[in-house]
Amino acid sequence: YAIRSREIRARFCAEYRSDRFRFDLCAELGAAAVRRRGFYEKELFPGALSYGPSRTVRFAPWRLKALAGWSFSPRSYLEAAVMAGAEPPLSEALFYQPSYNNRIVDDPSPERTFAAEASWRRTGPSLDMRITAFAVAVFDGLETRRYYDDLASVYSDMMLSQIGRLYAGAELGAEFRLASRLALRVAAAESRAVYRNDPAVVIRSDKDGHVISDRSRTLLRGLDLGGSPRRVAAAELRYEGAGMWTLSASAAYAGEHYVSPSPLYRMRRVWDRAASPEAVGTLTGQERFPGAATVGLFASKTFRLGARYLSLSGSVDNLFDDRRIVHSGYESMRLRKIGSGAGAGVEPFGSKYLYAYGRTCYLTLNFRF
Fold first, then answer.
1. Residues 6+ apart with CB under 8 A from 135
2. What is the DSSP letter of 18?
3. pLDDT for 31-61, tens place per residue?
């Protein structure tokens, strides 16, 4: 099969500059179309259901962005930006099963985004600093998942629509020049990335397309999206020697990190059949990973060979070899059936985890000519 996407956009941008003030405006309008063409006929979906072109899905993406900045002095600058727009969903999310099915999800809609950001920058002889605050709200997101539904005992396609997400936070970065060759760099961020509503769910059998669950909701509102920690901080002490030596020591911390939630576990059809109150808590709660910290070392030396340079560098990450750091994790889409008769029920499979590397050493040789 082939998924063919066509898109055309027109963009208008204007800029205004004065001694202290800056203003940018950008507007974008376009047209997009997505269609699948099957090269083989699937027995379960005969004829045009799998072979040949599907119907074409059309969208009208747009974006409007404005930015304003004011320079209080050559060393102090404030900037703010706002953005609004609508983008087509990913092409693979538009089809229940693009590998062998032309069926398009119900009522596909563009994903709308509204964002704002403010940033202040200060530079000086011994200190450079930047502080940024941001907020992003996403509406009408679309996602399709393919999985084995243990309650229906059939491979299924789940369509999530009306997905709302909210991202907000603040970031700080600074460099302190402690001496002519010694600098301390620090960075920190506090953020939130959560579901802002309960998405709508439609589940269809991958065998014949019949509806397993319709007009349902998954209770994701307020849960963390997972994938990245809410709180991070890092610091690096760096020395650059006169003989083209560089030495540095760094430390990093990440905290309030959550597993990516499964939409299946938050559906009433699942937790109504939980095997125990504890299983209900596991299905509807969200696991939080413990905070983690690492230390790293770096050293490099550059040799000048006439007009050429030879550099040798080495580093050690996760110096103390902590192998318990969970980098990311996600909940399964599978359920385990336990018991029989009136005592039958379900409980979730264990989550999947990706751990950070233990102590890792790098040695690099670079020749520039």
1. 115, 116, 117, 166, 167, 168
2. -
3. 999 999 999 998 888 999 999 999 999 999 9
**Residue 309 neighbours by CB under 8 Å, 6+ apart:** 302, 303, 367, 368, 369
pLDDT one-digit tens code per residue, 320-336: 999 999 999 999 999 99
pLDDT, average across residues 187-193: 96
Reference 113, options 84, 75, 141, 134; nearest CA is 84
d(CA 282, CA 276): 10
DSSP-derived pairing of the beta strands 360-368 and 200-205? unpaired
Q: State the maximum Cα–Cα separation within the chain, in Å, rounded to a whole number.
A: 84
Residue type, 76: S
What's the CA angle centered on 257, arms 252 and 258, to 5 degrees?
160
Distance, in Å, from the CA atom of 91 to the CA atom of 93, rounded to the nearest integer, reads: 5
Burial of 109 from C-beta contacts in 10 A (0-12 / 13-18 / 19+): middle
Helix, strand or coil for residue 239?
strand
Q: Which amino acid is at 245?
A: W
Distance CA 70, CA 237 (A): 32
Distance, CA of 111 to CA of 62 (rounded, Å):
11
Q: What is the dihedral of CA 211, 144, 196, 259, to 10 degrees?
A: 110
Q: Where are the beta strands (DSSP E) in 49-153?
A: 52-53, 57-59, 62-73, 76-87, 111-123, 127-149
Question: Residue 281 belongs to what H/E stretch?
Answer: helix 277-284
Nearest-angstrom CA–CA distance, 212 and 201: 10
Cα distances from 358 to residues 234, 293, 323, 325, in angstroms, run 18, 12, 5, 9
pTM, two decimals, is 0.90
Confidence of residue 342 (pLDDT cuts 50, 70, 90): low
Contacts of 42 (CB under 8 A, 6+ apart): 49, 50, 51, 100, 101
Q: What is the pLDDT of residues 54-97, one digit of tens each?
A: 999 999 999 999 999 999 999 999 999 999 999 999 888 999 98
Three-state DSSP state, 223: coil
